[in-house]
Amino acid sequence: MAMEHRAFFYRGTDDFLSVTVPYLESGLAAGQAVVAVLPEPNLTALRDAFGESAHRILFADSADFYRHPVRTLGEYQSVVKQSAPRRVCALAEPVWTGWDERQTQEWVRYESLINVVFHGTGARALCPYDTGTLPPGVVAKARRTHPRLVSSGRDDLNHEYVDPEAFGAGCDRAPRSPRPGDAEYLPIDGEDLHVLRAFVGERATGHGLAKRAAQGLVTAANEVAANALQHGAPPVGLWLWRDGDDIVCEIGDGGCWRPSPSPLTGFIPPDTALQRGFGLWTVRLLVDLMDIRAGWDGTFVRLSVSRNTPESAAG
């Protein structure tokens, strides 16, 4: 069963409702599990439009649902699995405000990954984009992550769509920003990573990271360092520094390794702990952002955790 994944370009509430109401009505009529994850004021406007029938739709606020790309993928995956054998009809409008450039790129990659994670489920997803308020760059990238586009009453095949694997590879080719001169360094020269865990934990909390978030960073750094020792080449080392509200930890080695031939590894929710990519998936869950860059000078994995990360969201 093929998945339907469409971007919907709209301007204003009336335009939004003119497409989303009949879309969700079609899902209800087909007996599908209908989900609407939207920001305000669209969330209230749509709920009001359905009136007494609103209880047939699972509504959620995007501000609560879209906090971490990997966790959001997992949440949607749970909805699809729990709804089976019914297909899911989802109206999903991500949050595009409040993110920096790097975070925005990660959410764009998330939209691309939707096509892989839910391939074969028969799920339907319509993703609204307000062209009147969103940055042009966000709208332009929506054309690269959705196989079909809905705009001005038309539902067309999108010829600008990019295969998720190629899109992910492009994201990973972005240059790595330089480390600051005051980054603290720890050489990693043995398989006993106790010193590394103590180093990361003490520095992270010293920079003001909450205890639970710091523990998540420690666990993530330990996993990445173990991978570097197993798959990389000496020298292996770790750097840690504060970048504004973020605590950044980078593990590097002298090799040029890839976790898999596919840039999707570590993003797709694994079925079991034995599945390839489970370790990277876990690392991504533990931190706010993770980047892997491999080149002539080695392989570097950069982990970032915000000091504003709520205690309940870390780990």
Describe what this molecule looks like in 3D.
This protein is an alpha/beta fold and 315 residues long. It has ten helices and twelve strands. Helix 8 packs antiparallel against helix 9. 36% of the residues are buried. Helices cover 39% and strands 23% of the residues. The protein is elongated and about 60 Å long. The mean pLDDT is 91. The strands form two sheets. Strands 3-2-4-5-1-6-7 form a seven-stranded mixed β-sheet, with helices on both faces. Strands 8-9-10-12-11 form a five-stranded antiparallel β-sheet, with helices on one face. The protein has two domains: 4-171, Rossmann fold; 184-313, Heat Shock Protein 90 (2-Layer Sandwich), CATH 3.30.565. A hairpin with a 2-residue loop joins strand 11 and strand 12 (298-306).
**What's the total helix number?**
10
Distance from first to last alpha carbon: 35 Å
CATH third-tier fold name of the largest domain: Rossmann fold
Give Rg in angstroms: 21 Å
Give the strand content: 15-25%
**Major sheet description:** 7 strands, mixed
Shape: elongated
Give the strand line-up of the largest sheet. 3-2-4-5-1-6-7
Q: Can you tell me the CATH class of the largest domain?
A: Alpha Beta
The low-confidence runs, each spanning 5 or more residues with pLDDT under 50, are none
> Based on helices, strands and strand pairing, what is the structural class?
alpha/beta
Find the CATH superfamily of the largest domain.
P-loop containing nucleotide triphosphate hydrolases
Second rung of CATH, namely the architecture of the largest domain: 3-Layer(aba) Sandwich
Mean pLDDT: 91
SSE pattern: EHEHEHHEHEHEEHEHHEEHEE
Structural domains: how many: 2
Number of strand segments: 12
Percent range of helical residues:
25-40%
